[in-house]
Amino acid sequence: MSVPTDKKFLLGISLAAISSLTFGLAPYFSIILMNEGLPAIEVLAYRWGVGTSVLVVFGLLAGNSFFLPRKAILPILFVSIFRALTSITLLLSFQNITSGASSTIHFMYPLIVAAIMMLFFHEKKSWIKIGAILFSILGAILLSSGGIRLEGGNLMRGMIYSVLSVITYAIYILGLRHKRLEEVESTPLTCYVMGFASISFIITGQFTGGIEWIPFREHYLWWHILGIAIPATAISNFTLIKSVKLVGPTMSSILGILEPITAVLIGIWLFAEPFTFKTAIGLLIIMLAACIVILNHRIERRLQQIA
C-alpha cells in the first residue's frame, strides 16, 4: 500500500529524529565501556554483533524475507565498509577529544553530502551551499579552540578522526541511494549492513589481541553493551535507512541536529566535559550551516515542483 506524500514525509522525518536521538547515546555507552577497560575494537564488535542479532530476530518475527539479490551484494559490502569506518574513527575520536565536540563535528556530514553531490553527481552548484560549507569550517575551528581536549588525548588526532568520520558517513549515506539497495527491504538491508560491519570488527579484533567473551554475570557491562547495541545501533541504523528510503538522504539529515545536542548534553551532565563560549558558538555555527543547506535543498525542490 502506497503512503500518501504528506504522511510519507512526516514518517520519514520522524524516523530521522529517532535515529539521531538514539545515535546520540552512542558516546555515553562507548565511553563507559572503554573506561571499564574494553578496547575500542572490542566495543565495536559487541555493539554491532549484538545489535545485528537482535535485529535479525526482530526481522524473522516480523516475517521479513532475507533473500538478497546477487547484484545487491557488492553495494551492501560497499556501504558496510564505510559504515564500519565511521564507527571506528568516531570511537577513536572519543578517546582524544570530548564526545560532544566529536559528535558536533560529525554532524557536518550533510555538508559533505551536498559538496559531493555538486562535485561528482552534477548537482547544480549553489553559493548558499558553498557558503554554508565554509561557515561550518569556521565553526569547527571555534569548536577546536573551545576546551575540547581530553586529558591524555591528542587534539589534532581527535580532530582528524572526527573529520574522517564525517567523510565516511557521508559516503555511506550516499551509498544507500544505490538503485540495487532500494530493492531490499529496510530491515534485511540494515541487518546485512550491520552484519558485514560486525564481521569486519571481529576479524580485525583477532589481529589486535582477540575479542574476549564477557560473562553474563557482568551485569553492569552487559547493560551498557545492550544500550549501545539496541537503541544506539540497531534502532538508529534501521530508522535511518528507512528514513532515507522515504524522504531521501538530504532530508533525512535535517533532524541530525538532535545528535550533537544529545551528545553534548550527555558529555556535560555525565562526564563533566567543558562547555565554553567558543564551544557553544562553534556548535551553533555548524548546526546552522547544515540546516541552511538542507532547508535550501527543500526550497529548491518545492520551486521545481511548482515550475
List keywords for this structure.
307 residues; mainly alpha
How would you characterize the overall build of this protein?
The chain has 307 residues and is mainly α. The protein has one domain. The protein is built from 12 helices and no strands. The protein is globular and about 60 Å long. The model has no long low-confidence stretch (mean pLDDT 83).
Taking the alpha carbons of the first and last residues, their distance comes to 29 Å
What class would the helix/strand composition place it in? Answer: mainly alpha
Please estimate the helix content.
over 70%
Task: Quickly count the helices.
Answer: 12
Summarize the structure.
This protein has helices spanning 5-23, 26-35, 40-61, 73-94, 99-106, 109-120, 127-144, 155-175, 186-206, 219-252, 258-271, 277-306. The protein is mainly α.
List the helices and strands and how they pair.
Layout: H1 5-23, H2 26-35, H3 40-61, H4 73-94, H5 99-106, H6 109-120, H7 127-144, H8 155-175, H9 186-206, H10 219-252, H11 258-271, H12 277-306
Helix pairs in contact: 1-10, 2-10, 3-9, 3-10, 4-8, 4-9, 5-8, 5-11, 6-7, 6-8, 6-12, 7-12, 9-10
